Amino acid sequence: MGSLAAETPFIAAAAFEGRRRRRPRFLCLHGFRTSGQIMRTQVMGKWPNSVTSRLDLFFADAPFPAEGKSEVEGIFDPPFYEWFQFNKGYTEYRNFDECLAYIEELMIKHGPFDGLMGFSQGAFLSAALPGLQAKGFGLTRVPPVKNLVIIGGAKFQSPDLAEKAYGAKIKCPSLHFIGASLFSFTRHLHSFDLGDLDFLKPYGEALLDAFVDTTVVRHPKGHTVPRLDEKSLEAVLDYVDRIEKDLEETELSDSVEAVEV
């Protein structure tokens, strides 16, 4: 008969296989002056079941009611929310610390989460949070952010905040969606209209430099949650495969430790 120490990994593996596999859970941060429900409609309505059925997506509302007109008014119903306020140059921010504290409370109450998914203003936050967390400027009471999905994101323009967020390379795997720019619009005039332009594209490209492990999906639409064509769907599914594998390995390791105890 083998020793208990030798049998422990097999006992843990058997117990793990007997459990229902947990879907990777993501906290989803919506765009400026929209809502969690709107982002749910954008993602669940555009991405196929082959993606969404494999993820556990929690769509939260931002903490502050919209202080002005929403760009989606007339398309989606209110209420509308914003994560923080900013000046015209996007270099000064109001209620930013309160926003970080609010997101941390969401993660404590509704987590644990395996990653963050953000669109537009929510993507700014999602991309910055791992770096801020690593330096102790936010999310100090929750585990490190492990995965990111950035849709129409960019870097914060404040030098002080940028240094805190991106001063060190961000190591967690990240999936970036970047839309068409004016350059691609002029090259493919026959297939675009002005609504297809992503005004954040140059800043989204610059954001990639802050990461070391990126998957990039470039799509022909503008500042939006895009539908997935065959090529982009393959990239997204590969990313989900990787997250699932990492999650399984982590949970199996935890099972081994629990059996040993």
Automatic annotation (TrEMBL):
<dbReference type="InterPro" id="IPR005645">
    <property type="entry name" value="FSH-like_dom"/>
</dbReference>
<feature type="domain" description="Serine hydrolase">
    <location>
        <begin position="23"/>
        <end position="231"/>
    </location>
</feature>
<protein>
    <submittedName>
        <fullName>Rhodanese-like domain-containing protein 6</fullName>
    </submittedName>
</protein>
<dbReference type="Pfam" id="PF03959">
    <property type="entry name" value="FSH1"/>
</dbReference>
<dbReference type="InterPro" id="IPR029058">
    <property type="entry name" value="AB_hydrolase_fold"/>
</dbReference>
